[in-house]
Amino acid sequence: MLDLKDLSLNIPETTKPRVVIIGGGFGGINLAQKLPGKQFQVVMLDKQNYHGFWPLLYQVATAGLEADAIAEPLRKMFDEDYEDFHFRPVRVTSVNPATKTISTLIGDLSYDYLIIATGTKSNFFGNDQIKQNSFPLKKITDALNLRSQILQCFEKANMTTNAALRQSLLNIVIVGGGPTGVETAGALAEMRKHVLPGDYPGMDFTKMNIYLVEGLDRVLPPMSPESSKKTQAYLEKMGVIVKTKTLVESYDGEVVTFKGGEQIQTQTLVWAAGVAGATLPGIPQEIIQRGGRYPVNLFNQIEGYTDIFAIGDIAMMKSEKYPNGHPGVAQPAIQQGQHLAKNLKRLLAGQELQPFSYFDKGSLAIIGRARAVADLPGKITLGGIIAWFAWLFVHIYYLIGFRNKLVVLSNWLYRFFTYERGTRLIIRPFIRKGDKATETFMKQQAAD
Amino acid sequence: MLDLKDLSLNIPETTKPRVVIIGGGFGGINLAQKLPGKQFQVVMLDKQNYHGFWPLLYQVATAGLEADAIAEPLRKMFDEDYEDFHFRPVRVTSVNPATKTISTLIGDLSYDYLIIATGTKSNFFGNDQIKQNSFPLKKITDALNLRSQILQCFEKANMTTNAALRQSLLNIVIVGGGPTGVETAGALAEMRKHVLPGDYPGMDFTKMNIYLVEGLDRVLPPMSPESSKKTQAYLEKMGVIVKTKTLVESYDGEVVTFKGGEQIQTQTLVWAAGVAGATLPGIPQEIIQRGGRYPVNLFNQIEGYTDIFAIGDIAMMKSEKYPNGHPGVAQPAIQQGQHLAKNLKRLLAGQELQPFSYFDKGSLAIIGRARAVADLPGKITLGGIIAWFAWLFVHIYYLIGFRNKLVVLSNWLYRFFTYERGTRLIIRPFIRKGDKATETFMKQQAAD
Question: Which segments constitute the External alternative NADH-ubiquinone oxidoreductase-like C-terminal domain (chains A, B) (predicted)?
Fold first, then answer.
């Protein structure tokens, strides 16, 4: 049998400076694409073998796009045209600044420059009960699980005469009023209107409730108040029940209890309420900032180091314009990755590093068909179909890979004209931890 | 917590005759599409909520198509336009002819006419060791697991200095020279030539061996000897090692041993060697034919019953022209489904049943880019690019759903011009039963 000790990172020896990049997200790939293999050896490590286009993840969860449409294999992005680039699909277990090495599951590797671009993971704020019972929406497997869960709830609702149970199967509570929560709620509302009545002719979908719960006083808190207001109006017009200033206290898999005592029976709690930086052992815990972010200077160097950098969501770069760091979206990661590539080349040439400055291209969120909001630079806010087209254009433009652009665009056009959501397959028997009845049921279903 | 006893089939009472169809494959859907809801109540039961287009399954396993492209949600196919049609995603546990009912995981249901269209499942001929260690290719989850396995083998081969282990990771043994085996071998050979060298610049893919093993004396035994010969020549030209008259004796997950003693070290044994009918408890075991098929008369009635029918792969209909039954492909199932719909209407009208007669439209198999074989009616055999275009046309024509046709066609064109295989994502940590090292590795990878 294959043994872990038979595996090793197998990175060729080199006389060039070795840049080790942990993470193949927006920051990591933009850095690696700009680092010339003639000057550096570049090693990228990621647990997954693909780059995910997370702004479209909610589409996978709501049966609008296939998983493969929003992900691109890293080896395809960095093919033989990238000289001296080495990808390994391995988890990094620690950083060892004293020896200038990192440790992985299958051995150590020395670095000259280390870039931590690990991004974020779901944050349950220490509430293990919620972690156990809710559906996060952060990874491709999360989205596929949530898709199966939602579809299975409809199927079960169609197979019960117990009215209370049916209602709890038809209640979907989305916690977190950021872009993921808003876009998921909007997509589910469209599905309720255009797809589900055809799928389940006997079922009364006026009883299906979509709740969007946000702790602050408005949805999309990072956007302008105008856009928040417009978004909430769009959502409510689509029949989403928006609850702001509402915090979740507990969720046992059956009943969500809010601070203040209000309760909703639901089988599906989507957790889009928070993320925390995916930090690594070896960098002192004391320096970690709010949200699990590493404090970096304007050159992306982590406090206390000159050869360890953090970029993207895991980096907390405070500046005059952004005293609390940059928003946790793709653009700062992309720009920091590209900027750091230039700085590493400057380092090699003995030149001074240049400070990073974020160019805000604006932000966008989609609520539904022809309904979107956009905050553009210069305090311009847009809504409706113009923002919707802007959203479509930007997302397809930034999507990695010609094939993916084609697939997403053709799906979009198809959906626009037919109102369909084509990928409503339950392809995996998702078993929620602790849900013994479903577990037994799915096992019996799958038995051969 | 949700309890199974809270669920029930929930099928409305009816005064019309109730047709219960078990299975949403080619036979089941073609039958249901032709049964008018004005005359019958139609209930379809399937463990999955989708119809799979299995002739393209090998494409999912070899990263050519996304899973969603070859499957169509049954509820989408049978929407509100189908009057009095009821789908339930539930496993049938037995047939009870004495009471004219079936039993499911969540309750019983009476029928007037029962149609068993359950198709086949992988057959390991009682060899539990092979069942445990090999990779079948029969379901969507099988294909996704095999895709992950193959990609993980390449990744591991790239991360070891142990030459014997690397070779065993680069050996892929496909057992079964039918269409699935041939098409998988061809697709892997193309991947080796056009995709993998770019993905793994340092790896020597001349060392990757693709074995295709068949027990009989030629590949594609149901096709003409000319097509078999052409297919083997194509495969060998593409570098596939074809071993006919070779039977597998054992496979422990590391070493496959053939009858006669020859051995090959491999981490990946693809099992495409046999299927058996997915029979149900309640129909007498004694009548079951070779390959787990129910004997049916020319009206598709199972021996001994007038109200229980079997169609497609699970049915063994012997006729003068087909003394051993029909080939286990889509066409007999499609035609029997359509024919049975007519017969059920005749039954209702008090007319005599009409015997089924199979119209052979020919058979096709694809080996690679512009390489295919076709046996047409009238003993015409085709090869090369003409057969390839025929294959493409037929498969896209029969593919369910406009969206799927579009996705598959655009994938195909994209691949034809770029040689790419876009969906090489490892999206699930497949753990082979018993492979503790991989299990530990994957768990550690996935740890949060």
Answer: 361-417
Interface ipTM: 0.89
Distance, C-alpha A258 to centroid of its chain: 25
A92 Cα distance to chain centroid: 20
* pLDDT tens sequence across A28-78: 999 999 998 899 999 999 989 999 999 999 999 998 888 888 999 999 999
List all residues 6 or more positions away from A351 whose beta carbon is below 8 Å from its beta carbon.
Answer: none
Residue A1 makes CB contacts below 8 A (sequence gap 6+) with: B253, B254, B435, B436, B437
B71:A401 CB<8 A: no
Is residue B249 flagged as an active site residue? no
Q: Is A376 on the interface with B (CB under 8 A)?
A: no
Q: For the beta carbon of residue A6, count every other beta carbon within 10 angstroms.
A: 18
Find the helix or strand (DSSP H, E) in which B33 lies: helix B26-33
What is the spatial order of strands in the sheet that B268-271 belongs to? B135-136, B268-271, B171-175, B209-213, B240-243
CA–CA gap between residue B48 and residue B90 (Å, rounded): 8
Using N-to-C axis directions, what is the helix angle for A402-418 and B402-418, rounded to 10°?
Answer: 160
CB A6 within 8 A of CB B441: no
Of A8, A403, A425, the CB nearest to B414: A403
Q: Decide if B140 touches A, using CB distance below 8 A.
A: yes
**What confidence tens digit (pLDDT) does each residue in B285-298 have?**
999 999 999 999 99
SS3 B75: helix
Task: Mark yes or no for CB contact A71/B437 under 8 Å.
Answer: no
Q: What's the CA angle centered on A371, arms A370 and A373, to 5 degrees?
A: 130
DSSP class of residue A38 equals T
B53 vs A contacts (CB less than 8 Å):
none
Report which secondary-structure segment, H or E, holds B308. strand B308-310
Q: Give residue A256's Cα distance to chain centre.
A: 24
The catalytically annotated residue of A72, A183, A190, A214 is A183
Reported as a single tens digit per residue, the pLDDT across A144-176 is: 889 988 998 999 999 999 999 999 999 999 999
Pick the more confident residue, B279 or A370. B279
Contact B436 A89 (CB under 8 A): no
Question: What is the rounded CA–CA span in Å between residue B279 and residue B117?
Answer: 10
Eight-state DSSP code of residue A160: B
A425/B contact by beta carbon, under 8 A: yes
Residue B411's closest chain A neighbor by CA?
Answer: A403
A 45-64 residues inside an 8 A Cβ radius of B: 47-50
B428: CB partners within 8 A, 6+ apart: A141, A428, B144, B145, B148
For chain A, the straight-line distance linking the first and the last C-alpha, in angstroms and rounded, comes to 27
Structural domains in chain A, CATH included, are: 14-47+90-122+276-348 (3.50.50.60), 128-273+362-438 (3.50.50.100)
Residue B423: which of A68, A121, A198 has the nearest Cβ?
A: A68
Tokens of A356: 């990073």
Contacts of residue B77 in chain A, CB cutoff 8 Å? none
